[in-house]
Amino acid sequence: MTRISMTVDGTRYEGEVEPRLLLVHYLRDHLGLTGTPVGCDTSNCGAGTVELDGDSVKSCSVLAVQADGGEVTTVQGLASGGEWTLLQTAFHEQHALQCGYCTPGMIMAARDLLKENPDPTPEEIRHGLEGNLCRCTGYQNIVRAVLAAAAEERRRRAPTPRPTEAARPDGQRPAAPVAARQEART
Ligand code: FES
User: Which residue in 136, 87, 95 sits closest to 114, CA to CA?
Assistant: First the structure.
């Protein structure tokens, strides 16, 4: 047995594991974090995607001992204070799931994709998520959800226009305040 410790979803864990134990089984069976599923036995489906030290990895293709000392984020660690992330909300609103088995991995992979490319095209999303399989073939709505989350994230990050810069409904710029007009004349 090997002693390991790691931070998962903000909580520090320590324990003894067999060196051959996969990270996904450590998360599920040792820590009880069953939000990360096992979707196949060949590391093909991506359902168990998590973040390890900032990188997206398939937790079924990483040994728990390889994550020793690391920081892991699972889909269960995304929501904060009962609030979903934009991606989680978008998956819900765009009906981007059917059975939902692929959803944790899709959300984690999409999160990684948007970190690299905050304004992806549908083709770039399909390419970025090609390591994640949806057996229900719900790809169309998954792509829509990622596009929606990306658009909302960009909208929130955009600087709010100052009142004098905001266009009026008639397309005209609002008049500057009197003091500013007088200053402009001088
Ligand atoms: S929603 Fe069922 S596998 Fe994707």
Answer: 87
Would you say residue 11 lies in a domain?
A: yes
Nearest CA to ligand 1 atom 4: 134
What's the rounded Cα separation, in Å, for the pair 24 and 61?
A: 8
Is the pLDDT higher at 46 or at 160? 46
* Residue numbers of the domain that contains 46: 1-77
Q: 121 and 86 in one domain? A: yes
Q: How far is the CA of 24 from the centre of ligand 1 (A)?
A: 19
For the stretch 16-74, pLDDT in tens is 999 999 999 999 999 999 999 999 989 999 999 999 999 999 999 999 999 999 999 99
Residue 166 maps to a domain: no
Report how far residue 106's alpha carbon sits from residue 58's, in angstroms, rounded to the nearest whole number. Answer: 11
* Any atom of ligand 1 within 6 Å of the Cβ of 133: no
Ligand 1 contact, 127 CB (< 6 A):
no
Atom of ligand 1 nearest to the CA of 99: 2
**135 CB less than 6 Å from ligand 1?**
yes
Classify residue 23: in a domain, yes or no: yes
The reply to whether 103 falls in a domain is: yes
